[in-house]
Automatic annotation (TrEMBL):
Species annotation: Ectocarpus siliculosus
Keyword Acetylation: no
Residue intervals of the DNA replication complex GINS protein PSF3 N-terminal domain: 7-59
Chief site of localization: nucleus
This protein's name: Uncharacterized protein
Keyword Nucleus: yes
Amino acid sequence: MAAGGYYDIDTILSEEIRVPCVFTLDAVGMGVLDPTTSDEDLSQGAKVDFPLWMARPLAGKGMVNLDLPKHYTDRFREQLEAGPGAVNLRERCPFYYEVGVVLASLMGDQRLQDTLLMVFSGERFKRLLDCSLNSLNEDVNSFTRDLPNLEKSLFNAGYRSSEEYVGWKSRAFNKLATSKVIQGKVKRQKL
């Protein structure tokens, strides 16, 4: 899913986002998966929300059809296309882009991919870049509070870069020093 890999906490958390699924066949003995039913079996057409890590292989085997969560539907996409900067994506899904890309890929939904790209690379990205590079010594918590995980990590990278640039420009980094990584290796070799 994400580039972080198997042990990446963000990847694990994004895989926990629940996705609505509809069974395409009778699921014998699987009634425990649906908390709203007391039946032992799930019949064809039963709707259950599964975490993404479970929905992906079930959809791949044709056991379920995926439905889009509300924050990826056509109606919500129209709101995003009208004004993506005004929508709080974190409130809908903290891993909005990561989950959206996986769902678009699984469902073959090119329009969802296009919408995600438009939202990410448009007005929101410009605002994020501007704020991250020009907000030193300002309180940015109100801005970052509403950012989904991917946008927040980009903001933090831009903010750190801006801090380092200001430090370099003011000659705070004019003295060369040995890297902490190298210092650690030298100490280990002496033992």
